[in-house]
């Protein structure tokens, strides 16, 4: 069946059946010079084919899938990423974040990035007001960033984004232009503190006027996310942290359409003390969101990632012939 | 962990991890009122998540995948279907055709549809010339259509399409407009015969200026298909047959980029006899492609499809709780 081509044996593809196609596609793809891509394609093709075999996927269903994916691609724009939304509502985004950013206990957990982060948020000082929405309920956000050993971390770049009081991100308005709202980039100070003015987050539906919204409806699922605020932390030497804080008691707290909620990220809102009102220049009675974030070092993350990848290869029975490189399994070159 | 909602138990989604996310996404999707879609989503989510866990998919790799799928969607037009092309080059199209159209022995095998079938081919009589390309090598195509019991089948609608002598389909030219070329729809006559004038097929590359072409290059694979002509057969009472004939000895015969070649569909070209030249109004020495197609009845196909679906459920250990309906497994409603 095989004919030699250089050092590799390439199969003769002339009689592919339900039962032999997978091994043959995998063998053809094994000509790939990038061993990591080769492994990714091997697992992808195996699972895709098993999916078709196990469901006995019909031509009409396959065609419906082709059309669905085409619609998902075609609705994407610079400010709308429907494939990320699709990944979110099938739990893939949460899974990938959990794999790529393993957390030791007592550190802040990560969650889904979502499709609404932008790179044009204004960089500003502590005390900045991130929302220009006059209808939002004022909120003081008062946080610290520490390492797992409890030391304050200075100079962390923190990206924050939230919706307006209507549950919409700035990029969801046609007339947004280049004027960001509901966003900021702030840095933690010498004692690891960062704080800013915002509005109390509200629940919102993920964009549901496209193919992903239609799929959710077909699945009998709602398209809502509970009230939350996004945070992203970057500082050299620390693992990139994408997370969010969820407001305790929000609608949809237990049924987030994108599977982002974690108990450790749910926070009850307080009210500022008279001293805080004075210190942070807010009215008495203003709502307060306070949280202490704990960042993990790159070194800790790499170690954990390596251990968990090794564990996964073991349970897959593929310890042999694979080496964990930068935390991911890569087949050894023959 | 679960709270009752109507008759269903919906999980509380607040602490999803690498290990528990799959069952929770499957349970949320089980609210779907269409049991077939529920099963498809169950298998899809399970395989997608296993893929991520087994590869330890990184955020950057996930993002590369998101961007790749977006590009695939965005290059699609009315006359270019890059997702079908993607399905073709990973062997999914061939697999789905094999599952959906099982063939008893001695019937004509099916193969990939490809992305170039259109619905505007001219309907014409036997003897029609399907190609206007003056540079193509003339070819007489002389075929019969029979049932598995050997009876000629009259009045079968046969869609035929091939490239021009440059290896391009009409729809790949910007100025094609509504004028189809290299295509025809012909019907078999009283004795099951259909024949037409065409040109000798040539190998051609699948469209490789888009994301699928780039993927093939990364995988170290070529993008060529061996010389072939497409055929599609429709007649009430018979299973829809999508197939192609491959010219024996063509370049890429054993390494078709889309896995479409089957031994039973490879045909050597003959030369017309002097009698045939006269009868079919071609020059002496003209090349001849002759083939006897055998169609399967709907009834035979349904029976086979049912048997193979039942076998697949058995080997998956899921005979219980599933019923085979119209040849596909559907979970029983609780």
From TrEMBL, chains A, B:
Domain of life the protein comes from: Eukaryota
Gene3D superfamilies registered for this protein in UniProt: Aromatic compound dioxygenase
Needed cofactors: Fe(3+)
Domain Intradiol ring-cleavage dioxygenases: 114-295
One of the GO BP terms on file: catechol-containing compound metabolic process
Family: Belongs to the intradiol ring-cleavage dioxygenase family.
Protein name (database record): Intradiol ring-cleavage dioxygenases domain-containing protein
């Amino acid at each position: 069946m095989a004919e030699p081509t250089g050092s590799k044996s390439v199969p003769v593809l002339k009689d592919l059946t339900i039962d032999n196609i997978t091994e043959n596609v995998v063998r053809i793809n094994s000509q790939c010079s990038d061993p990591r891509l080769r492994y990714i394609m091997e697992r992808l093709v195996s699972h895709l084919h098993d999916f078709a075999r196990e469901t006995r996927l019909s031509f009409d269903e396959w065609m419906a899938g082709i059309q669905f994916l085409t619609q998902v691609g075609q609705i994407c724009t610079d400010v709308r990423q429907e494939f990320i939304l699709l990944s979110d509502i099938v739990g893939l985004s949460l899974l990938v974040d959990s794999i790529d950013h393993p957390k030791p206990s007592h550190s802040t957990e990560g969650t889904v990035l979502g499709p609404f982060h932008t790179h044009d948020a204004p960089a500003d000082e502590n005390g900045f007001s991130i929302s220009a929405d006059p209808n939002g309920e004022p909120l003081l956000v008062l946080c610290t960033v520490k390492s797992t050993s409890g030391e304050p971390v200075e100079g962390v770049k923190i990206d924050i984004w939230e919706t307006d009081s209507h549950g919409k991100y700035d990029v969801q308005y046609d007339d947004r232009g280049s004027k960001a709202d509901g966003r900021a980039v702030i840095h933690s100070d010498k004692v690891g503190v960062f704080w800013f003015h915002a509005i109390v987050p509200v629940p919102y539906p993920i964009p549901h006027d496209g193919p992903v919204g239609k799929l959710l409806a077909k699945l009998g699922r709602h398209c809502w996310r509970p009230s939350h605020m996004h945070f992203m932390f970057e500082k050299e030497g620390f693992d990139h942290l994408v997370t969010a804080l969820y407001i305790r008691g929000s609608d949809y707290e237990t049924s987030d359409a994108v599977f982002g909620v974690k108990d450790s990220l749910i926070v009850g809102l307080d009210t500022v003390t008279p001293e805080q009102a004075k210190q942070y220049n807010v009215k008495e009675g203003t709502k307060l969101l306070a949280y202490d974030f704990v960042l993990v070092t790159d070194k800790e993350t790499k170690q954990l990632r390596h251990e968990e990848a090794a564990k996964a290869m073991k349970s897959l029975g593929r310890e042999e012939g694979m080496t964990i490189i930068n935390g991911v399994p890569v087949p050894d070159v023959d």
